[in-house]
Amino acid sequence: MVHNDINTELFMFSVFDKKQVKWIRKPYCSITELKSWLIEIALRSDDYENLQITPEELLDVKIKLSNQSNEDNEIFTIRQVYYGDMYESHANFLKDPENLKSYKDSLVSY
């Protein structure tokens, strides 16, 4: 997804923090934000595993998955398959430029 105000490609960043035993997932990251995370991971590489960086545009792609218990095919985004419905709801909210701006502004203090 390319955000019109920033005019930059955005990515989903996901990595497992072995020390805190939890996933860190940051949707809608710019290249600049990714670089900051990658520097952090490089400095403490023993603390992290399973790094994934996926373009948001790819995560929006819809696919059909067949359900073995019935003949109906269900349509999901790749985001739902990789990360679940919670991240799909979050992405739908952030597709509004004002919501994305508010979200980004809230991360500045992090």
Distance between the termini: 23 Å
As a whole number of angstroms, the C-alpha radius of gyration is 16 Å
Count of alpha and pi helical runs: 5
Strand arrangement within the widest β-sheet reads 4-3-5
Work out the number of β strands.
Answer: 7
Shape, principal axes of CA atoms: globular
Strand content: 25-35%
Task: Indicate the mean pLDDT.
Answer: 83
Order of helices and strands: EEEEHEHEEHHH
Helix coverage percent of residues?
40-55%
Overall structural class, as computed from helix and strand content, comes to alpha+beta
The major sheet is characterized as: 3 strands, antiparallel
Low-confidence stretches: 1-6
Describe the structure.
The protein has about 110 residues and is α+β, with helices and mostly antiparallel strands. About 40% of the residues lie in helices and about 35% in strands. The chain is built from five helices and seven strands. It has helices at about 30-45, 55-60, 80-85, 85-95, 95-105, and strands at about 1-5, 10, 10-15, 20-30, 50-55, 60-65, 75. The strands form three sheets. A three-stranded antiparallel beta sheet has the order 4-3-5, sandwiched between helices. The chain has a two-stranded antiparallel sheet with strand order 1-2. Strands 6-7 form a two-stranded antiparallel sheet. β3 and β4 form a beta hairpin. The two termini are about 25 Å apart. The model is unreliable at about 1-5 (pLDDT under 50).
